[in-house]
Fold this protein.
Amino acid sequence: MRHLSLDLIRGDILPGDHITTACDDWLSFSIRFVTGISSFRWLAPNSHSMIVLANEGGRVRLVESTLLTNGRGEQMAGVIETDLEVRLAAFDRVWWLPLGTRARAAWNANEAAAVKWLLERIADCTPYDAWQAWQSGHDWLDKVLSRWSPTYARESWDRLFCSEVVAAAWKIATVLPSSWNTSEFSPYGLARLGVYAPEYVQLLGKRKEIARYNSEPVWT
């Protein structure tokens, strides 16, 4: 992992890349605690996910689903477009996870469909899915009861939570297999998927590596 400012790498960030974050507040801690325990860790490193929509001369446009405030203190709800430079002010730690060679080729081949879907979700103001966000973080019970678990999230895109937006766009772009359930991915679950370049960058905050980054096979 490298630790660099946004100004040094803003031109390298590409559509489809994953921006993931964490804060030192109680909400981020609770998300990291629950998703960490489900992954047999005390705390997950990250608690929020955003996907890069476009890079326009260094201005990095993002899509995310959130109930929080942006860097200007404005209330946001559901799927929205935001600006990376503005959003940095809202977090204590931010990482850029670039797609690897195979995932990048898949995204580039199907980017139009994925971007169309993302723009439709913004236009529709697709609501935030707090219930499935909670379900996706409690995978420890799913490991025991599988699809019969009360915490198993059945795929649905009528409402969307943060990491589900990223996973769904990737599924449309064939970065992820069509059979995968995008409503079951937490931010930490996304960070562990084997779809990234070998090296990632922390853009903000005290140095913190993402354990098991890029470690879980996607294609067999």
About this structure: The two ends are 26 Å apart (CA to CA). The chain has a mean pLDDT of 89. DSSP finds eight helices and seven strands in the chain.
